[in-house]
Specification:
This protein has one domain: Pnp Oxidase, Chain A, CATH 2.30.110.10. It is built from 4 helices and 8 strands. Strands 1, 2, 3, 4, 5, 6, 7 and 8 form an 8-stranded antiparallel sheet that branches. The chain is an alpha+beta fold. A hairpin with a 2-residue loop joins strand 6 and strand 7. Pfam families: DUF2255.
C-alpha cells in the first residue's frame, strides 16, 4: 500500500506512552464505501516511535483486510479517539523488526503472546501512523 505523507504526523511522546501502557486498543478501519468498520479490540505494542498490532487470524482477518483496503481509520484508547493510517509491516521485509515486535508482545503479554508470534500472524502485522 502506498502511504503518501498526506496527513501523517509523528506520535507525541504522551500518545506513545499511553499506547505503550494500554493493554489493548479499539481499532476501526474505514471501508471503501464510507462507514467505518465495527471496532475490534486488539493488543498493541510500541517500538521506538512505532505502534504495531497483529491480526490473530492472519491476513484473512476481516479487520486486517479492511485496514489494507482503505488505509485509514481510528484507534481508541480509553475515551480518546485518534485518526490513523494503517501500513502492512511484512516480516519478510524486516526480520529484525519482526523479532523486536515478538519480544515486545512477549514482554507485555507474557504467555498470552504465544499465539501472536506464529509466521501466519507475523504476516498480518500492521504499523499504525498518527494522522492530523
Amino acid at each position: 500500500m502506498d502511504l503518501p505523507d498526506n496527513g501523517i504526523r509523528a506520535w507525541t511522546p504522551e500518545e506513545l506512552h499511553t499506547l505503550h501502557e494500554a493493554w489493548s486498543i479499539m481499532l476501526a478501519a474505514e471501508t471503501t464505501d464510507g462507514p467505518p468498520q465495527a471496532q475490534v479490540e486488539v493488543g498493541v505494542v510500541t517500538i521506538d516511535d512505532g505502534v504495531y498490532v497483529r491480526a490473530y487470524q492472519g491476513v484473512r482477518s476481516v479487520w486486517y483486510q479492511a485496514t489494507q483496503a482503505r488505509g485509514r481509520g481510528t484507534i481508541q484508547v480509553g475515551n480518546v479517539v485518534l485518526p490513523v493510517r494503517f501500513e502492512a509491516q511484512q516480516s519478510a521485509d524486516d526480520a529484525d523488526l519482526a523479532l523486536r515486535i515478538d519480544a515486545a508482545y512477549s514482554s507485555k503479554y507474557g504467555s498470552l503472546a504465544s499465539g501472536i508470534m506464529t509466521r501466519a500472524v507475523r504476516e498480518a502485522t500492521v504499523r499504525i501512523h498518527a494522522r492530523h
